[in-house]
Write a structure and sequence with these properties.
alpha+beta; Arc Repressor Mutant, subunit A; three-stranded mixed β-sheet; two-stranded antiparallel ribbon; 5 helices; about 35% helix
């Protein structure tokens, strides 16, 4: 995944650094939305601090390499997917487990089209489906 992450950083015109590669490669490998704390935990061996992770995530989002989605818990999660026309697809629904907080992308499904007033500029759209994941259901039985 490191090579893919490196290639995507270059294609986006970003400076390639060890930390940026680590964060993007982790997001690509996990293939699910992760919070900054999830990333810090997964990248513990690289000893990335909070601020560095925040800055890298903001850069990756602004560059279109990842998308972010906010759960009902107020936590932003970030996700990278297979490259689609040079950008992360985003624009799809997400599942959020109300028990464990794990979020899953439904990247193969697109959000429905909504007609908005012509003088309204859409800057972000999100659909969050709440429920209980299979693992948490097993634990409850």
């Amino acid at each position: 995944m490191d090579k893919i992450a490196e290639d995507r950083l270059r294609a986006a015109g970003l400076r390639v650094t060890k930390h940026r590669i680590c964060v993007l490669a982790c997001l690509l490998e996990e293939a699910r939305p992760l919070s900054h704390l999830d990333l810090i935990g997964l990248l513990r061996e690289q000893k990335l601090d909070r601020v560095t992770v925040y800055r890298i995530l903001a850069l990756l989002k602004d560059s279109g390499l990842v998308h972010q989605v906010q759960g009902t818990d107020g936590i932003w999660r970030f996700c990278a997917h297979e490259d689609v026309e040079g950008k992360c697809p985003g624009g799809h629904p997400h599942l959020l487990c109300e028990v464990c907080g794990q979020m899953t992308c439904l990247s193969e499904q697109k959000l429905p089209h909504l007609d908005v007033p012509h003088d309204f500029k859409v800057t972000h759209k999100q659909m969050l489906i709440l429920g209980i994941c299979a693992n948490c259901q097993k634990l409850q039985n």
